[in-house]
Structure formats: structure tokens, C-alpha cells
């Protein structure tokens, strides 16, 4: 059974997905960085952000050796 967003009407097949979507309308950001206090709607965004503080750059370009904190930045670099 589909789960509609009460605000914009977008339909979701899973309740959890709809709940995460609702955070965008409600401005809820339950995941907070303990280093700087920045808040995020999703856990993976906090995990990506933490690399700013740790200096970790797990995504490496096989062509030039450049390193990136986020996979999407590596993909953009390769284009």
C-alpha cells in the first residue's frame, strides 16, 4: 500500500522512506556533529561530514591519485 506525503502528495512504497522525506518539510535534522554542531537529516550525510574533521579521504582517483572525502566528488572529478 502506498504511503503519501501529507504535505506535497509524493507517494512512497515504504513508510520509513516517507518518514525520512517528511524531515525535509519539517526541517528535522536529528543527526548532529559532536565536533561543530552541524546537523543533518540523514546519518550518511553526518558520516560524510565527519571526514572534514578527520581528514579522511577514502575515494582515490586511479588516474591522477587525487583523493576525495565523498564518492560524488570523485565521480564529478572523473567527468
From TrEMBL:
GO terms for cellular component: nucleus. Keywords: Metal-binding, Nucleus, Repeat, Zinc, Zinc-finger. Its main location: nucleus. One of its GO terms (molecular function) is zinc ion binding. It holds the Pfam family zf-C2H2. Residues 3-30, 31-58, 59-79 form the C2H2-type domain. InterPro entries: Znf_C2H2_sf (IPR036236), Znf_C2H2_type (IPR013087). It is found in: Nucleus. It comes from the Eukaryota. This is HIC2 protein. It comes from Aleadryas rufinucha (rufous-naped whistler). The gene is Hic2_1.
Amino acid at each position: 500500500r502506498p504511503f503519501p506525503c501529507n504535505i506535497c502528495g509524493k507517494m512512497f512504497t515504504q513508510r520509513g522512506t516517507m518518514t525520512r522525506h517528511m524531515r525535509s518539510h519539517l526541517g528535522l535534522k536529528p543527526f548532529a556533529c559532536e565536533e561543530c554542531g552541524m546537523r543533518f537529516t540523514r546519518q550518511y550525510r553526518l558520516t560524510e561530514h565527519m571526514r572534514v574533521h578527520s581528514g579522511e579521504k577514502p575515494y582515490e582517483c586511479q588516474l591522477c591519485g587525487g583523493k576525495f572525502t565523498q564518492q560524488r566528488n570523485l565521480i564529478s572529478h572523473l567527468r
